[in-house]
Amino acid sequence: MDPNQMKKNFSFVLLSFLALFCASCSDVDNDIASRENQNTANAITKTVVTLNNGDQREYIVYIPSTYDETNESPLLFQLHGSSGDGEKYYTISGWNELAEIHNLIVVYPTSYSYDLKLNGCGNDLVTKWNNYNLPKEVCPSEVLRDDTSFFNQIIDELVDEYSIDTSRIYMAGFSNGSGMTSRLAVELSDRIAAIGGLAGFFPEDTIYAPKRILPVHIMLGTTDEKIASRTIFNDTIPMSFQQLFLDPTLRGITQTYVKTFDLNPNYTVTDSTEHTLTATFQGNSGSPEHLMKFTLWKDLGHFFPNPDDRPGAADVLWEFFEFYDN
User: Fold this and answer.
1) pLDDT (tens digit per residue) in 211-229
2) In a 10 Å sphere around its CB, with 0-12 CB exposed, 13-18 middle and 19+ buried, how is residue 291 labelled?
3) pLDDT tens-digit profile of 52-92?
4) What are phi and psi of 324, to 5 degrees?
5) 177 CA to centre of own chain
6) Residue 288 burial by CB count (10 A; 0-12/13-18/19+): exposed, middle or buried?
7) Contact 75, 158 (CB under 8 A)
8) Which of 175, 195, 176, 197 is nearest to 184 (CA)?
9) Phospholipase/carboxylesterase/thioesterase domain spans which residues (predicted)?
10) Intervals of CATH 3.40.50 along the chain
11) Measured distance CA(3)–CA(52) in Å, rounded
12) For every residue of the chain, which 3-state class applies, written as one string?
């Protein structure tokens, strides 16, 4: 396909026809088309392939059956973790069900793939978002992609195609994708209403300069093996912020958010449930929209929960997001 043609705002095809053009991805596309029928008959799922800074990039869009072009819909992004892709979180996150209830257009982008030091340079490539932690993880030969530009482009393409409330654009993520939402809260905060994520954060003891200070919700499972192993707790993080902040890593990560978003370091414990404990940090401006929530999930490992019997991560994040606009 001519690259100039690929740059047009909407390239592209319903998944039910994509198999005609992409034999290598036909099985995945047919699976998505099948799930479309299992959701709501009038809902639409599309895969969009676009060109960003010379790279072919992809994202999945879920348009709910409630979509009405005469009314503006909120736009929500779900960012996958390391080695994941948009297809995975289309399947497991629970956002499509919330899209039907709240008339959300939901986007599931896929990151670029890199050669990582952890795997030994020259071995398998792994999908990774270019969050603030990635530069120290990739092999020397790798050229990092500008994912902030990619998200900016996705927003532009979807705003051209659909009736979207541009004051209500939200970024949710998991693990490496959660860390990317924090980067976007700095570099794309002029377009985003709020961000939130689970199991991925800023680097510790750093300060960034956001274009605009926006509401933030970070979350962590107490038995997240990838994060707990980096702390003094080894395998289980306590369900106590007083104890949690005894750990230098978790304290340093939190301080990055406090300093970056001009928050009061004195927090209050709020919105707790049988399964979660939340600390709320108010902003120094005193504005009710200037805040950060930090939620601990009891006995949650390194995954994005979507249980049948109680609210999952998507539910908790949407309950936070829906009150804010840009």
Assistant:
1) 999 999 999 999 999 999 9
2) buried
3) 999 999 999 999 999 999 999 999 999 999 999 999 999 99
4) -120, 145
5) 5
6) exposed
7) yes
8) 195
9) 145-227
10) 1-191
11) 10
12) CCHHHHCCCCCCEEHHHHCCCCHHHHHHHHHHHHHHHHCCCCCEEEEEEEEECCEEEEEEEEECCCCCCCCCEEEEEEECCCCCCHHHHHHHCCHHHHHHHHCCEEEEECCEEEEEHHHCCCCCEEEECCCCCHHHCECCCCCCCCHHHHHHHHHHHHHHHCCEEEEEEEEEEECHHHHHHHHHHHHCCCCCCEEEEECCCCCCCCCCCCCCCCCEEEEEECCCHHHHCCCCCCCCCCCCHHHHCCCHHHHHHHHHHHHHCCEEEEEEEECCCCCEEEEEEEECCCCCCCEEEEEEECCCCCCCCCCCCCCCHHHHHHHHHCCCCC
Give the whole-angstrom CA distance, residue 147 versus residue 243: 35
Choose among 122, 123, 120, 145: nearest CA to 135: 145
Task: Record the pTM.
Answer: 0.87
Q: For residue 22, count other CB atoms closer than 10 A to its CB.
A: 13
**Which CATH code of 2.60.40, 1.10.10, 3.40.50, 3.90.550 fits the domain covering 1-191?**
3.40.50
The residue type at 217:
H
Tokens of 1: 């396909």
